[in-house]
Write a sequence for this structure.
């Protein structure tokens, strides 16, 4: 063993130990390992940061941005509304939910897919009278399984492809992972839906993250092309009940009916006052093709020659649509463009304080006793004209207003839910005497942008899959198109990227190269072969898969892939067989983090909402990992012959 091999093994051992210890964030540990290798002379200083230009790193960052575009545009919400059954039993409901999670994870970041479907899972658990964990854990595992199916499904696949690119064989194509990954995902989803969910411990929900404001009262307009136009109220109520929402009023010709009869027919132009949780608002709008009330009122406004808007009686600054907590009342909801990526535009372009390119934020403010807006209504505040803001809701001591939402007079202690450019929100809080509490996220589906986001992702995937462009270039073009079309807020582009993962990948790629260049990977591979596998290629393949699985349960999956790829290549070289099966085994093993809450971010996401403890994951995770190994090993040998 050479001095360089001793040094790299020492650095690698300390790195893995620090990953397992978990006291320091994984990107800090990876950066420390990189710098240690540079100081030890194992990596040339000029090559230390070459990993940041690696195609796998660029592709991971771009996929995260495109995934966020699918999320904020409402594309995934619309897909979920169409594919998930509304009244089926446990088996078909779980199969559909877990299957949809796996499908989405093949083409978008699996953490994003999990975050999108978690509210759906919670609603499904309530409908099926199941503990939340028995729906959340199957969904989490399903989204992890789905990442195995494509090149962009999960970072380990991109890392594995990057290591293959360093050989004469070139990188893996978009769907090279599908023959094995798809079979494993399908078998895993079927197992989870049929039997696996029963193995999940029945735990009570431990806590709820975030600020709870309860249900919101929202005014939505029935437009001419809406499915609701011409339906009876009882039919609409039945549809909304599936989304956990209810109708509490109807406005026709500016007259509000607080208890409309269920036999009344709804007409185009009517305004429905709907009570729904904030997570259910996108589904409520998508289900019946409804629009936030201001979308109808703003389209009726006519611009005059001097750029002002007629119809001042509607006070464009506080135009009607609203979303207010059920224990509250109040105010103005933005047009669809403002709820996604576009800024609120003032009726008089010269009067708005916020620049037109500012991105939209949602913030909660508390009205202090000395606030200047006390006693004034949303209409009187002229928030849109003065600040470019919308008042979405007012929470007040458990009461619900019977007046139109835009006419409620604000009182001290009210909780305001406001939307607009972040700078304008901060300025308004300072001017009016309000205290900012928290920034929230509210996704309102925009059909045009949803289609645009889906088309951009489709073309990006197609360009990479058909070999028209390298994956990094294809997805980078997709990101640029998303920014140009505003399917993602510009300020959210860099926020969408998981920078610790990017730094982790960029730092460990040169470290892995040092393992290979010093012959350390080959040394480890030969030790495993001589000590355990006894020169048997299939046994060695199984060993690589199992070791990768074990590491992935204890440390970041991207780090696991970066550590194991050189060992896999060295093992294949020592046996004199093709490395493809071994690299695929690393990809599958790195995605099989089912035993602990720290192995994958999706497992961590469900820890609190599911009421789980550290030892609850293995009950479903262990049988699932055994099943994955049993299915994948024969397929790896068949699809990628040794």
């Amino acid at each position: 063993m050479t001095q360089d091999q001793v040094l790299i093994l020492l650095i690698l051992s300390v790195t893995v130990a620090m990953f397992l210890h978990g006291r320091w964030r994984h990107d800090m540990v990876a950066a420390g390992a990189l710098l240690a290798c540079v100081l030890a002379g194992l990596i040339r200083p000029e090559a230390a940061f070459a990993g940041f230009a690696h195609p796998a790193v660029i592709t991971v960052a771009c996929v995260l941005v495109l995934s966020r575009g699918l999320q904020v545009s409402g594309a995934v919400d619309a897909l979920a509304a169409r594919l998930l059954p509304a009244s089926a039993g446990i088996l078909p409901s779980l199969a559909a939910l877990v299957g949809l999670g796996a499908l989405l994870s093949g083409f978008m970041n699996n953490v994003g897919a999990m975050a999108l479907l978690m509210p759906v899972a919670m609603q499904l658990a309530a409908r099926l009278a199941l503990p939340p964990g028995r729906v959340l854990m199957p969904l989490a595992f399903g989204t992890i399984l789905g990442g195995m199916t494509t090149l962009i499904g999960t970072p380990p696949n991109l890392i594995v492809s990057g290591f293959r690119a360093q050989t004469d064989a070139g990188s893996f194509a978009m769907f090279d992972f599908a023959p094995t990954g798809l079979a494993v995902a399908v078998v895993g989803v079927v197992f989870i839906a049929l039997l696996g969910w029963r193995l999940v411990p029945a735990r009570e929900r431990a806590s709820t993250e975030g600020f709870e404001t309860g249900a919101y009262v929202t005014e939505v307009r029935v437009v001419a092309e809406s499915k609701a136009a011409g339906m009876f109220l009882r039919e609409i109520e039945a549809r909304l009940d599936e989304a956990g929402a209810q109708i509490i009023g109807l406005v026709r010709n500016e007259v509000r009916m607080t208890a409309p009869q269920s036999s009344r027919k709804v007409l185009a132009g009517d305004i429905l006052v709907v009570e729904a949780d904030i997570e259910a608002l996108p589904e409520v709008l998508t289900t019946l093709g409804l629009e936030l009330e201001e979308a109808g009122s703003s389209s009726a406004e006519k611009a005059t020659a001097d750029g002002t808007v007629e119809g001042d009686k509607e006070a464009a600054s506080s135009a009607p649509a609203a979303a207010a907590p059920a224990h509250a009342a109040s105010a103005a909801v933005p047009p669809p463009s403002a709820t996604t990526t576009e800024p609120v535009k003032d009726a008089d372009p010269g009067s708005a304080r916020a620049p037109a390119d500012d991105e939209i934020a949602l913030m909660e403010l508390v009205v202090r006793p000395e606030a200047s807006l006390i006693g004034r209504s949303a209409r009187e505040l002229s928030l849109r004209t003065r600040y470019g803001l919308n008042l979405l809701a007012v929470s007040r001591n458990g009461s619900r207003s019977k007046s139109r939402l835009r006419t409620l007079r604000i009182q001290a202690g009210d909780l305001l839910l406001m939307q607009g450019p972040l700078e304008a929100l901060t300025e308004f809080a300072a001017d009016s005497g309000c205290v900012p509490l928290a920034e929230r996220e509210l996704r309102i589906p925009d059909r045009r942008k949803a289609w645009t986001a889906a088309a951009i992702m489709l073309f990006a995937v197609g360009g990479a899959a058909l070999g028209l462009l390298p994956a990094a270039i294809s997805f980078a073009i997709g990101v640029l198109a998303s920014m140009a079309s505003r399917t993602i807020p510009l300020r959210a582009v860099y926020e969408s990227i998981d920078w610790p993962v990017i730094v982790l990948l960029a730092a460990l790629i040169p470290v892995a190269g040092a393992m290979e260049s010093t012959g350390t990977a080959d040394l480890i591979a030969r030790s495993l072969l001589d000590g355990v596998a006894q020169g048997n290629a299939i046994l060695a393949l199984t060993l690589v898969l199992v070791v990768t699985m074990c590491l992935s349960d204890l440390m970041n999956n991207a780090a696991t892939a970066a550590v194991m790829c050189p060992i896999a290549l060295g093992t294949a070289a020592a046996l004199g067989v093709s490395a493809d099966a071994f690299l695929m085994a690393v990809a599958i093993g790195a995605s099989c983090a089912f035993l602990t809450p720290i192995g994958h971010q999706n497992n961590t996401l469900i820890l609190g909402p599911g009421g789980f403890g550290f030892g609850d994951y293995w009950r479903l995770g262990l049988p699932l990992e055994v099943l994955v190994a049993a299915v994948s090993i024969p397929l790896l040998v068949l699809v990628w012959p040794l």
About this structure: Residues 529 and 535 are 5 Å apart (CA to CA). The longest strand covers residues 360-367. Residues 58-204+458-495 form one domain.
